[in-house]
Design brief:
With 400 residues, this protein is of the alpha+beta class. It has helices at residues 3-26, 36-49, 111-124, 150-157, 213-231, 269-289, 312-321, 343-349, 381-397; strands at residues 53-56, 60-66, 73-79, 135-141, 164-175, 179-180, 184-187, 189-198, 202-203, 238-247, 253-254, 257-266, 293-295, 308-310, 352-360. The chain is 34% helix and 23% strand. Helix 1 (3-26) crosses helix 3 and helix 3 packs across helix 9 (381-397).
Length: 400
């Protein structure tokens, strides 16, 4: 039996296990740095493998499969945190197959799928050990949504001298059962920002005796829309989503403060910083027009992370070998996604691939956008992700 046939057979044998893991993990979503039950479940499965592992503060885990022969070191990654989103009882078409048991929290981004596919690979790859050279690291990253786990996990990986990496994300804008491993920019960089307009509160009947920050904040939004649209470099794209605006508690009271917040998304880090600087300058000048001040409680926005950019050679390799185990027509091109991901930091450190696994099938109830209460997907796609993960790792570990 060829190696590709072995991979397909072994993953097929683990498909129900992968689905069962997804359902169990879906039931216990936990937010950044609080993935206690999630980690306990992962540890139980990891210990069954008999492989050595390392616990990285606070909830990240590295599992090591050493073939005993020299070769590449391949890091495979899954994120493990959920979201503070109340899950709906139904998806886009009807009742869900599985539901969150933690009220007010759910896996509305697909991290339950990512963990399950990696656990499936953890079952399969040790069975191919005698045919491989080098080392595989199975990495479970806590706190991806807020970036709380990335620094410690990457620091812990330094001693392993990683050669290449792999990550995968289910994607609601890509057709169900399709996969994209394109080279180049795949997901955007992000900067979160918050600005407080500070004025002087007062009675609603005498606005002339107060300095109303609501007007400063409202004017800021108008000014920003003009300045932002006119000053982003032609040919570049920076999006700004203002997602929060809060001021006051009563109709007859002028508040002291009006607060706004949102995020920038971009692929060019220099252009992203220029947009963030424009945000600050516009806020400060607008505040002065209303005799208010603009303050930045999280600090002025600064580019820290970066976009997810697939290595050209690693992506070409994936495009070559994945069709050997995936159904014909599975691997397709896909436009970049403007959401952000901590895996961009992996790809700045190691060459590798971040794959998109399509889940969009609205007629069947799947395809609600990420971070949405109706987000859901067909369990059948999990096998494709596990197949791709295993085949990618095997290719690097059979070279030479």
């Amino acid at each position: 039996m060829s190696l590709n046939e072995q991979i397909k057979k072994l993953v097929e044998e683990q498909e129900q296990y992968i689905i069962d893991c997804r359902h169990k993990l879906h039931a216990i979503p936990e937010v950044c740095s609080k993935e206690v039950k999630t980690k306990a479940f992962l540890m139980e499965e990891i210990k069954k493998s008999g492989l050595p592992y390392e616990e990285v503060p606070t909830n990240s885990i590295i599992v090591k499969l050493d073939t005993g022969r020299p070769g590449k070191v391949v890091a495979l990654r899954a994120d493990i945190d959920g979201l503070p989103v109340k899950e709906s009882e139904e998806n886009l078409a009807g009742p869900r197959v599985c539901r969150s048991e933690h009220d007010g929290y759910c896996h509305a981004c697909g991290h339950d799928a990512h963990m399950s596919m990696l656990l499936g690979a953890l079952k399969v790859l040790p069975q191919l050990k005698d045919q491989l050279n080098g080392t595989i690291l199975f990495c479970f990253e806590e706190g991806e949504e807020q970036g709380t786990g990335i620094k410690a996990l990457l620091a812990a990986l330094d001693k392993y001298n990683v050669d290449v990496c792999w990550g995968i994300h289910v994607y609601a804008e890509l057709e169900e059962g399709k996969m994209s491993v394109d080279a180049g920019p795949r997901m955007a960089s992000a900067i979160g920002t918050m600005v407080n307009f500070k004025g002087k509160g007062g009675h609603g009947s005498r606005p002339d005796m107060a300095r109303n920050p609501v007007f400063a904040a409202a004017a800021f939004l108008n000014n920003l829309s003009m300045a932002f649209g006119q000053q982003v470099t032609a040919g570049e794209t920076v999006t700004l989503g203002i997602t929060m605006f809060h001021a006051g508690e009563a109709a007859n009271v002028i508040a002291d403060t009006a607060e706004l917040g949102g995020t920038f998304r971009f692929f060019n880090m220099e252009e992203g910083q220029r947009a963030a600087d424009r945000f600050v300058k516009t806020a400060e000048h607008t505040a002065a027009m209303f005799d208010c001040t603009a303050e930045f409680p999280r600090g002025k926005p600064v580019v820290a992370g970066g976009p997810v950019i697939n290595d050209a050679a690693a992506a070409a390799l994936a495009q070559k070998v994945l069709p050997e185990v995936l159904p014909e027509g599975t691997v397709v091109p896909c436009e970049p996604w403007y959401a952000s991901e901590s895996f961009g930091q992996w790809l700045r450190k190691y060459p590798g691939v971040f794959a998109f696994l399509g889940i969009k099938n609205e007629e069947a109830g799947f395809g609600a956008l990420h971070h949405n209460e109706k987000f859901d997907f067909n369990d059948k796609v999990l096998k494709l992700g596990a197949l791709a993960t295993v085949r990618y790792a095997v290719e690097w570990l059979t070279q030479g």
